[in-house]
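Moderator note: this is an archived Q&A kept for reference. The question asked for a predicted structure of one protein chain; the sequence and the answer are reproduced below.
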Amino acid sequence: MQELPVLAIDLGGTKIIAAVISHQGQVMARESYLTSAGEGPQSVIDKILSATDHLLGVSNIELSQLHSISIAAAGAIDFEQGVVTSSPNLPGWHDIPLRDMVNRKYRVKTFLINDASAAALGEHQFGVGRGVNNLIYLTVSTGIGGGIIIDGRLYLGPSGSAGEIGHMTIDVNGPKCSCGNIGCLEMLASGTAMAREAIRRISQGEESSLTEMVEGKIGDITAEKVGVSAEGGDSLALEVISQAANYLGVGMVNLVNIFNPEMIIVGGGVAQMGDLLLAPARQAVEERAFQLPAQAVRIVPAQLGDSAGLLGAAVFALQQELD
């Protein structure tokens, strides 16, 4: 039987990435676009469709030559219905039947999965998680997402929405999250949270090299800039990252105690801070988690970068056919 490639789409709060991926995980063609999520769902959907059209054009692939289209999307996913039920980082996305909207245009088998669950599959199949039967993937970027692999298989739960790790409650008196809950991990440890905390402290008069970096426009501070300042020894930036990393570690303690994983993989843009982020998180697990599962787990950086979700989306589509 001919092994047809999958056209995978990774829909995030910041970027839309589309790629044609072979059964062996080779990226045959790839395109990237800004999501511009603030323009609303229809605008984003139009970009997904135009990205798909453009990718098919530049790769010179006919629809009949595709195995399927597989979409990894940020947010809570109803897998059976192919619906994005909500997405804190995609404003206005409520009960959007994204799978069927794409399928109606292209008439190719179409799948929809949460982006962090897809990234977990990607790292498990092709990245740092190869050969590891029980792992949890955490993506730390604009928000925080997660994916769970148990006994070598992606765990989705009965409605397909398992793995919303960013929305576990860490502080019952914490800030209100865009999901409607209070004190979510995402509100305390994401890149957005780091930037917000740095802006808050500087606006209250604290000194930081960040002020000079953004030429006084403190609203332009991002997590990436906080990371650069921290590497330069800026004390405020170091404290902001340490605080977020400690919250992240508390979230990991819960995961270690509940799931007893062999590995926690940390990906996403903020994870590029490396041990600035991971060392305090590892320390929190060491100090707070039950000793036996704490000794069993390895907390490691992801290997595949922003290709993890694309590769995982392709794996997911191929596995659905086998199942």
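Archived answer notes: The CA atoms of residues 285 and 291 lie 9 Å apart.
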